[in-house]
Amino acid sequence: MPRHSPNLHIGCGSTILPDHVNLDIVAGPGVDVAFDLDRCRDTPLPFPDDHFDTMRMAHVLEHLNEPLAVMQELYRVARPGCRLFIEVPHGGHDDAWVDPTHRRAYFPKSFEYFSQPKYYGFDYGYQGDWSLVSCDLFVNATLFSRHKVERLRELIEFNRNIAKVMRANLVAVKPGRPRERRLMDRVVPSIHPL
């Protein structure tokens, strides 16, 4: 295993973070681990169980073919209470789909599928349990200055290209919660200027 750090930077590319294990699909300067996340269904990440305190993933999740397998494997290597910070294009923005390597779009409620309580009535075989702590939506600064937050929520709900970027803050719940609807996270996204 590469240098020891309680922090994992997933899909680092050329943005190497100090005090992090930097993981990317391609080996390169500063990349500590070269690993294809789409192999997570069959090949575990090269880290022990309960290893990381924080994880960061910016503009990676939307490229993955098997996001549940990846999120389950990240859960395995997360310590209880590990924070996972994810940034993706908002699913209602063209940026979610213009890149031909994007596999799916994400919305605030998409993060529910990374928790156990979501599976109260069905089962995808997913075993991870990430609790959504917060979700932040980012809109054009000019648009933000012209409208109240309530109006921006309506615009985001019913129009395209209003929210550009979404950032989620999740925490690893270990042991996992029961699959009960009443335990589902209820997070109202915050809206910020970009």
Describe this structure in words.
The chain has helices at 67-77, 141-146, 149-158, and strands at 7-10, 21-24, 33-34, 52-58, 78-89, 130-139, 163-172, 190-193. The protein has three helices and eight strands, in the order ββββαββααββ. The protein has one domain: Rossmann fold. The chain has an eight-stranded mixed beta sheet. With 194 residues, it is an alpha/beta fold.
Structural descriptors:
alpha/beta, eight-stranded mixed beta sheet, Rossmann fold, globular, 14% helix, single chain, 3 helices, 8 strands, 194 residues
Q: Radius of gyration, Cα only, in angstroms?
A: 17 Å
Helix content: 10-25%
In the CATH hierarchy, the third-tier topology is known as Rossmann fold
* Spans where pLDDT lies below 50 across 5 or more residues: none
The CATH architecture can be given as 3-Layer(aba) Sandwich
Number of discrete helical segments: 3
CATH class: Alpha Beta
The number of strands is 8
Mean pLDDT, all residues: 96
Which overall shape is indicated by the principal axes computed on the Cα atoms? Answer: globular
Which H/E pattern describes the elements?
A: EEEEHEEHHEE
Largest sheet: 8 strands, mixed
Structural class: alpha/beta
Task: Tell me the β content.
Answer: 25-35%
- The CATH superfamily is identified as Vaccinia Virus protein VP39
Tally of discrete structural domains: 1
Instruction: Report how far apart the termini are.
Output: 38 Å
Strands of the biggest beta sheet: in what spatial order?
Answer: 3-2-1-4-5-7-6-8
